[in-house]
Structures are given as C-alpha cells and as structure tokens.
Specification:
Number of helices: 8
Radius of gyration: 18 Å
Order of helices and strands: EEEHHEEHEEEEHHHEEEEHHEEE
Strand content: 25-35%
Number of strands: 16
Largest sheet: 8 strands, mixed
Strand order of the largest sheet: 1-2-3-4-5-6-9-10
Mean pLDDT: 88
CATH architecture of one domain: 4-Layer Sandwich
Distance between the termini: 26 Å
Structural class: alpha+beta
CATH class of one domain: Alpha Beta
Low-confidence stretches: 1-46
Bound molecules: zinc ion
Helix content: 10-25%
C-alpha cells in the first residue's frame, strides 16, 4: 500500500487464536508437503522468526515476516464499506483479521522462493533506518525481525539471486537497500533486482512531481548500483518464475507466478489486502491508484485461481497468509494452508 498520513502506530500483535470459517488443508493432500521447524533465533515473537515453509511441486516457499498487527480502521481503508456490512462479517473476520476495535490486521512480509535454479525474494517489506515520519512504527526502526527471519529460514543476504517487487510502494521495497557507511546500498549484494519498467517509469514521473522518500532510498540506489533490470509486465525469468500484469493498485502492479507446470503458487502482492476483499472483490482500498481497475483485476485474479491447486501467497493477510481460493456465494474465500 501507499504510505498514508495516519498517525497511530501498530498497537499490538495479532492474536494467535484461530477462529472463523477458514478450514485447513485436508491432511491427505499429496500436493503440499508442509514442513515446520522452530528456529533457534532467540526470538519468541510468534511468526516472526519461525522457519515455516511450504513445498509445492519442486519449489519451496518461506515466509519472512517483519511485522504483523492491527494496521488501520477497516472503515477508513475501504471508502465503500458500510458499518452494516462490516458488522455482518465480523464473526468470521475477528479476531485474526479484525481487531476488537475494528482495525484490519495486516502482516508485512517477504517471501523467499527456492526453485531448482534460483533463490528469489518477492517483495522486500519495510526496511530499517528509513525516514517514514507519517508512519511512526516504520520510522527509523532498527529491529532485527527481517534479518532474523531470513536467517531462521536458512538464507543469508548473499544467497538471494533475484529480488522481484510486485510494485514500488513503500512496504514492498524497503529491504531493497540498507544503510551502510551512511549510504543506501543494495541489501542483497549479488542479486539482480527485477522491476517492471512501466512501473518504474510511472513512479519516476511521480517522484519528479513530489519527491517520494522510499523511491529515493529504496529504488534509485539499486538502479545506481547497476543491479536493477527493468522488465516487461509479463516477463518470464525462466521455466519456474514469471510475472503476470495485475494493474489497478498501481498502474503496473504485477503478480509473481511460480511453478514449472502451471502455477503451483502465485504471489498477488497488493491485488488484495484483506480476506474481506476475497469475499467482496469490488471493495477497493483508498490506496489503490485506480479503484475500478483494481476491482476488475481482483475479481478476475480470484476467478482464475478459484478451485485450483495454486497456493495464493498473500502479502498482507494475517498469518498464515497463504491459502487456496474457493468460491463463497458471489465472492471467494482463501482457505488457509498452514505449515
Ligand atoms: Zn502493501
């Protein structure tokens, strides 16, 4: 999402109690082999430093959680959401996806994907030391959550071959860079950073009109270091990793599709932010650049993956954040798949 001028910080971590209708994957599934190891990272913060991964096809998917908790009031995020509709859905949203005071619970995370060929990091979260005055919980933060989670999953920054950003918003580019010797340097020293050329051009134009701090500290330094590659919105890295255009949230937002024989998994980025939007795909948050386009993209994305084997690895759904899309009346739901 785009940085917004809402002053209240993330107040508390998401409650871990499971509730609501989200069923778990049948235990006899042969498609997904789930592994779980509790990391010895000295962190007891729930999801933060756990080594949880899903194996699907011949790829392995790790969640790298940086932050999770109530983010903003649901009624503020969705301009067309009525209090009545929120009331009617509270029973299945709360407490995991909706806090007691009706704030939507968001997770902020990256995914690291190990394919037979490469290690790919999708979306790079919030980052440390970044000046973000309008969002106090991100502003100049210096926690070890991201790096601990990366290490707990068995990766070092030198292991990442490619960084792919679904779009260039502040919470998807943060760990592209880190502060070293007073300079923003690429966090992943040998990675190629694959960025939609059209998305980059759009934000270059916006940055020229009004300077965007996250573009300056987390995108441009990667360009200057010569580690960025600007690609088409339907770029294919190889036989396992490809982009699919999903415009609306930003003009050239892309989803990352994974798997050799069709999509074993897909990373929709900010095509949707909350399970409430699966249920009601026409709910567009105020931070979508084109709300009509994003609503169309959201519905066609959910329709495309409905009742398929594809794991939908969301950017912001509360933990476990990953699920399979099934139908729910005129909308959809994402049935959780939990390591
Ligand atoms: Zn986002």
């Amino acid at each position: 999402m785009q940085e917004a001028g809402i002053p209240r910080p993330l107040g508390k971590r998401a409650q871990s109690t499971r509730s609501g209708p989200a069923p778990t994957l049948p235990s006899d599934s042969i498609l997904v082999d789930m592994g779980l190891q509790t990391a010895l990272a000295g962190h007891t913060g729930g999801e933060l430093a756990m080594n949880k991964f899903l194996s699907v096809g011949d790829i392995r998917i790790h969640r790298i959680v940086e932050l999770e908790g109530p983010f903003l009031p649901a009624l503020d995020i969705f301009p067309t959401l009525s209090a009545q509709l929120l009331d009617a859905n509270r029973h299945w949203l709360a407490p995991k996806a909706l806090s007691r005071d009706d704030w939507l619970v968001f997770c902020f995370q990256s995914y690291v994907v190990r394919t037979p060929h490469h290690t790919v990091l999708v979306d790079s979260c919030i980052g440390n030391d970044k000046v973000r005055p309008t969002r106090p919980e991100w502003n100049l933060k210096r926690d070890e959550n991201f790096m601990r989670a990366l290490a707990a999953s068995g990766f070092s920054v030198g292991d990442v071959d490619f960084v792919m950003c679904t779009h260039l918003h502040v919470d998807h580019v943060g760990w592209n860079t880190r502060l070293q010797g007073g300079r923003w340097t690429p966090t992943f020293p040998k990675a190629r950073y694959l960025i939609s050329k059209s998305e980059f051009d759009y934000w270059t134009e916006q940055h020229a009109k009004t300077p965007l701090p996250h573009f300056a500290d987390s995108v441009l330094p990667v360009m200057e270091a010569g580690q960025a590659e600007l690609v088409h919105d339907d770029y294919a890295l190889d036989d396992h990793v490809r982009l699919a255009p999903t415009p609306g949230h930003t003009p050239h937002h892309v989803a990352v599709c994974l798997g050799q024989d069709g999509d074993d998994a897909v990373m929709p980025g900010d095509v949707l932010h909350s399970p409430l939007q699966a249920r009601y795909p026409e709910l567009s948050p105020r931070f979508d650049v084109d709300k009509d386009a994003s609503a169309k993209t959201r519905r066609s994305f959910l329709e495309r993956y409905c009742d398929t084997r594809t794991l939908c690895c969301t950017a912001h759904f509360p933990s476990p954040s990953i699920g399979r899309v099934t139908r729910w009346d005129d909308g959809f739901r994402c049935d959780s798949v939990e390591p």
